[in-house]
Amino acid sequence: MEETKHGGMASVIAALFANILVAISKFIGYALSGSTAMLNESIHSIVDCGNQILLLVGDKQAKQASSKQHPFGQARAKYFYSTIVAMMLFFAGGALGIMEAVEKLSEEGHGVENAGIVIGILIFGMIVESFSLRVAFKEIAELNRQKLPLFKFLRESRHSEILIIFAEDTCAVVGLVLALLGTVLSLVTGNAFYDAFSGLLIGIMLCLAALFLAREFYSLLIGESVTEEDLTIISSAFDREEVKHLIDIKTIHLSATDILVTAKIEINSPYVVDGSAIINSIEKDIRSKIPDYTIYIYIETDTYMENYER
């Protein structure tokens, strides 16, 4: 349960240290080579460092206790900061990289110096980023208790930070491979076009990642219901002889591990007098069935009507 409560943050910290180390090496490589791909990768790593810092700030904010102004706490702060990461940093980094690559493509005197050093730094970066990606995969395995296919899990997961880090680390590894290919081709052919073109591809990849993440976090910010499997589990708590009808049920994720459940039920007439005890029993049953969540439950009794509108 502990990894679910704090899922994603170990990968954030691992990614931060990895990106600080890689960013320093990439800037050294750019200073020695003038490589456009290396510059784009340097920008990418600096952007990634900013990403992780924002995610850590969001995690701290999300842990704020409930108050009169925020009665359910501030758990959705993670979604807000994740959205900033997706749009401001991913997109800004990608757009800046595209602009630099386009400029280099039209620059006749552009060349790559000290290509051997660049290749060495890129390989070093791939090793470090692969370690960070491995940590992300490990956390995904811990969170993916239903053993869903990877991309289905990422679409259904309410853990915004693990989605950010997975996308970021994947882009980092792919970006380094593109930069390495561009550098090697420029070295072999003597044509710096391949270096600039690989930088352009890296920038486009970051922009596409930003758009994908923004779409996911838009849905989370608005408020997503629990998964179909969790809804089935919650609904099963109402399947008892005391409950005549489950008139309506609504759920919403306040964060990856905080859920609001509201329901309207009709109690069978022999048990009406025990309404409060029945509701308390249902609430206890729901919490016992999905113990990994903090659940806010509000259940109202009513009379079932055929034409009831939700």
UniProtKB/TrEMBL annotation:
Residues covered by the Cation efflux protein transmembrane domain: 12-221
Membrane topology value: Multi-pass membrane protein
Keyword set includes Transmembrane: yes
Alphabetical UniProt keywords: Membrane, Transmembrane, Transmembrane helix, Transport
Major location category of this protein: membrane
Annotated localization: Membrane
Acyltransferase found in the keyword field: no
Transmembrane residue ranges: 12-32, 79-102, 114-137, 162-187, 193-214
InterPro entries reported for this sequence: Cation_efflux, Cation_efflux_CTD, Cation_efflux_TM, Cation_efflux_TMD_sf, SLC30A9
Annotated ranges, domain Cation efflux protein cytoplasmic: 237-300
A Pfam family recorded for this sequence: Cation_efflux
Protein name: Cation diffusion facilitator family transporter
Organism: Streptococcus loxodontisalivarius
